[in-house]
Amino acid sequence: MTTAESRNLLTDNPALYEARFPDPDHTAGRFIDDVLQAHLPDATAGSRTGPAAVLDLGCGTGRDLGYLAQLGYRCHGLDQSPAMVDYAQQRYPGVSAAVGDLRDFEIGQRFDAVICLDSSLLYCHTDTELESCLRCTRAHLRPGGLLIAEMRNGAFFLGNTELLDGLSHSSFQWQGSTWRAETALSIDHAAQLLRRRRRWRLPDTTDELVQTSAWRLLFPLELTGHLRRAGFAVRAMFDTPGPRTDDGWPTGTGRAALADLGESPMSGDRLHVVAQAI
How far, in Å, CA of 140 to CA of 96, rounded? Predict the structure, then answer.
């Protein structure tokens, strides 16, 4: 039996999500801390002016915020999944979270930094949605505050079919069972979307779960223009290194990790953006 659902198996089951995407070295959290130390030193966790307030759009399980909270940051998350929000607040001390839509949100406070990781920004499928998200983000940042975003890079797919050729298969263990998935990616050129169809084989049953999702494909120059119009100045944009690149994010380098980025070809699978509210 095959069941098609609009909801996502992993985002409805936070513990399963963390089992599928482990991050024992807190790669994403270290990336954020290093960027803040380099670009916003007066508001970081160890500064004289007090800990920075960080808002995570699409916070998921709250794992990244949990790491930042341990460093002393004041952490708040926003996510569409009630299960994720509940898990984040229960699992990670120092993290507050609320159910909300990153495409249009109002929290009632300003932050030193807004982070948007793992392609969450790309759930804005249209220019209208993207512009609304960036306007809301700017409104929630104090002057000089940072937007730090990490996502798939639309430029990667220019003439590159590496992720589009055939099906990919993955499996992982959780609570004594093996979870298996078969994934197909395709490009909807007219809508400028990367579409995914994933078929889960559920453990201990013959049932299958088919789920579909999509992400906007943004190009570096295109994203720069959207940010500028929303009141941001881009301070850094690069494809690698990064928390989800093949080489990962360097360990123990602090601010130096950003100092040696050099000229990036901007053709890698991931795109990293540091933009400042002006």
Answer: 16
Mean pLDDT of the chain: 92
CA distance 101 to 132: 11
Average pLDDT over residues 109-136: 98
In angstroms, the CA 263 to CA 278 distance is 25
Q: Give the model's pLDDT for residue 2.
A: 47
Closest CA to 36 of 231, 255, 259, 273: 255
Q: Report yes or no: 201 and 180 within 8 Å, Cβ to Cβ.
A: yes
- The answer, yes or no, to whether residue 48 has pLDDT greater than 80, is no
Going by C-alpha positions, the residue among 44, 92, 37 that lies closest to residue 64 is 92
Task: Collect all residues with Cβ–Cβ distance below 8 Å to 262 and sequence separation of at least 6.
Answer: none
Q: Does residue 259 register a pLDDT over 70?
A: no
Distance, CA of 234 to chain centre = 18
Q: Predicted confidence band at 1 (pLDDT cuts at 50, 70, 90)?
A: very low
Q: Do 112 and 52 meet the contact criterion of CB atoms below 8 Å apart?
A: yes
Neighbours of 245 (CB within 10 A): 17
CA–CA separation, 154 vs 151, rounded Å? 9
3-class DSSP state for residue 51?
Answer: coil
- Residue-level pLDDT at 4: 46
Q: What is the pLDDT of residues 261-270, one digit of tens each?
A: 656 789 999 9
Name 199's bridge partners: 182, 210
* Six-digit token string for 83: 């299960």
Distance of CA 79 to the CA centre of its chain: 11
Instruction: Measure the CA–CA gap between 179 and 202, rounded to whole angstroms.
Output: 6
Among left, alpha and beta (phi > 0; psi -120 to 50; other), residue 129 is alpha
For 73, 150, 252, the CA distances from 25, given in Å and listed in that order, are 18, 18, 11
pTM: 0.94
